Amino acid sequence: MTVDLVAKLDDKLRAKRESFDKIPVVDIAPLLDGSDKLSVARQIRWALSNTGFMYVKNHGIPRDFVDSVFDVSRRFFELPMSEKMDLHVGKSDVALRGYIEPFGENTDPTKTKDLKECFDIGPERSTLEGPFFGANQWPSDFPEFRELTYGYHQKMVDLAKKLLKGIALSLDLPENHFEALMRNPISIQRLLHYPPQRGYVGENIIGIGAHTDYGNLTILAQDDVGGLQVMNRDGDWVEGTPIPGTFVINIGDLVQRLTNDVYLANMHRVVNTSGRERYSIPFFIDADFDATIAPLASCVTAANPVRYKPVTCGAHKFGRFAASYAHLAKAG
Ligand SMILES: O=C(O)CCC(=O)C(=O)O
Ligand SMILES: [Fe+2]
């Protein structure tokens, strides 16, 4: 099904794109139950073209399930450093699964060392198949960690596919547009822990340095501590205040490229000066490793000529990781 959401505006009629000081909250129930997909698509279009970020509510993932994943995540990060380092991401080669210590991945290496620690899992494979596809590393004697985090990952894959239907509709594409590019998509389920920072906090060390996400779509659960900051089109930082029961959704570079900058993959960062430990659970989904992403014809006009060359999803994503992971940099 295609719908006429995208007006083909004469370039002379274009005005400066609206900026924002608040990230919109979108109720996605009518998208999920099919009762009014287009009204949700319209809200998605506004959010992604103006802010690149939105909160979603009524997403169908039970609150106590999300809380139980936060609970095992907290318990994981409380393990002794030696146990966590036994699961270090460097041991997974290019599958990029496992534990990353503070300063082990610096998302904005020109400015910032990242204080966060992370744990990454992805689609389970018995052997290393290539970048992003291999075996997960699991902590021993912690079966509920594996069960809950992997179960959460599966639920996120399903939710992401539904959200991508809404994004396709918002671009006047058939709702299954992304499916053909996502037969075996790269996905990463990440757990994050941000220790609080006290005293003087400068740009050289913060929770996570300013970055755009690399792939298609991110679904983030955050606890109630706060500290996420999002840059708007004017270059101002806006707080991504926690809203109970919602996920924060943002698009990554690949959707910005696909839409020729009509949709924005915002810069964002985390600065945790709350005095409390902060935990978040981002999920990232992309396209297949070999999928080619090139600007949509409908997003190219005389005033907005082609801005990007086609890239393959895997090459783009791996390149961004190689620039930020200490262990990949060492491997040369
Ligand atoms: O923890 C957060 O709120 C944001 C995390 C993030 O931006 C990322 O992992 O890419
Ligand atoms: Fe991010």
From TrEMBL:
User: Is Nucleotide-binding found in the keyword set?
Assistant: no
For the keyword Iron, the answer is yes
Q: Name one Pfam family in it.
A: DIOX_N
GO MF terms, alphabetically ordered: metal ion binding; oxidoreductase activity
Domain Fe2OG dioxygenase: residue ranges: 184-287
- Which keywords belong to this entry? Iron, Metal-binding, Oxidoreductase
The similarity comment for this entry is: Belongs to the iron/ascorbate-dependent oxidoreductase family.
Name this protein carries in UniProt: 2OG-Fe(II) oxygenase
Tell me which species this is from. Rhizobium loti (Mesorhizobium loti)
